[in-house]
Specification:
homodimer, 40% helix, 9 helices, 10 strands
Chain lengths: 205, 205
């Protein structure tokens, strides 16, 4: 794995993978960079250039084998295994995430949920008992969890993040609308609906 | 407005705007493409190239005035006004979205929430009464709403989307993990936590 590949290129691989998995689920077995590009709105040249950073996946004039490219992208993104994930915050968003059906097919499995509200601690969401946030560091340290989804209020997000970092978490999916400070070896991705909405208003009248 | 600007460039503008607004909120008044690039992980050259598609916003060697660039980006993205938004689905995710504090500062205001569950219809979320989905087309048609956030289950998402299109909605933020079919003049952005998680596993050991 070459960590010098720009993050913006790495960031497009899951989009390619998703589109290819979708084609595959519809029984399509081969595609071209231009067909894939049509689906996701990225130029064929960009797709070829991005993929060439990681290897040789298609044959000139013959396109890509979808099952092969899916497998290769899963290997590159390391989702050819299942990652355990902790959800921090058992509010509406934490519930929505815990009920989300689409994780296990794509490399992820929620295995712990935490909250600090005594009303929520000990309750059940799907098959999980909500754990006390006070035990977050010790429970995550004892586990093999490297990934957390953070759904606590913005005001609490940085303090919880510090605990997650202390517990050994290396990747945080942040739903709180603030920028988190983390060490260099911890990755953060923020999910902000505003960014998506603003991508569309550009086109509206 | 030039609709020939590639969507991938338009899609980066909200990220620039968010970072600039964040700097501005911390009292910073000027920046450079390299400083901005550091913050968001995009190259300075890319940022300059992207912005040059829309005009001349900085002075050679002097960088960008943040308040000016924020205003220009808000104009370009048309979030120098407030857009009314309908939320479809009053489950956990619909609740989380209705409680989300960050919309109004960024150009959006939720004005209607719909559900088809008799248990939910008529209940209150924040200041909104949950409306019956059966009235969706007529109520949205009567309103000035062009944007919807879709939080219904995947199995219902396409049927509801058809209603939204009939009602005149032109932009859909889709939280359901399926690809929606819409006419060419309707924009869809999908929020999928899997995409974000897979962007990070690449870097994990």
């Amino acid at each position: 794995m070459d960590n010098d590949i720009p993050g913006i290129i790495v960031g497009r691989l899951p989009i390619y993978l998703q589109a290819l998995e979708h084609m595959h689920s519809r029984g399509i077995l081969t595609t071209s960079s231009s067909e894939l590009g049509e689906v996701i709105g990225i130029s064929a040249a960009q797709i070829r250039k991005d993929l060439s950073q990681f290897g040789e996946f298609g044959k000139q004039g013959k396109g890509y084998s979808i099952p092969f490219l899916v497998e290769q992208l899963r290997n590159i993104l390391k989702v050819n295994k299942i990652w355990d994930v902790a959800v921090i915050g058992a509010g509406n968003l934490g519930h929505a995430i815990a009920h989300y059906q689409s994780f296990t097919d794509h490399g992820f499995r929620i295995t712990m949920i935490f909250d600090n509200d005594p009303q929520r601690i000990g309750t059940k969401i799907e098959e999980f008992i909500v754990q006390d946030m006070q035990n977050l560091v010790s429970l995550i340290k004892k586990s093999d969890i490297k990934i957390a989804m953070l759904t606590v209020p913005a005001a609490a997000a940085q303090a919880v993040t510090n605990d997650l970092v202390n517990a050994g978490i290396k990747a945080i999916l942040n739903y709180a609308p603030i920028t988190l400070a983390v060490p260099d070896d911890v990755h953060v991705q923020s999910v902000d609906p505003v960014i998506y909405l603003q991508k569309m208003t550009y086109y509206l009248e």
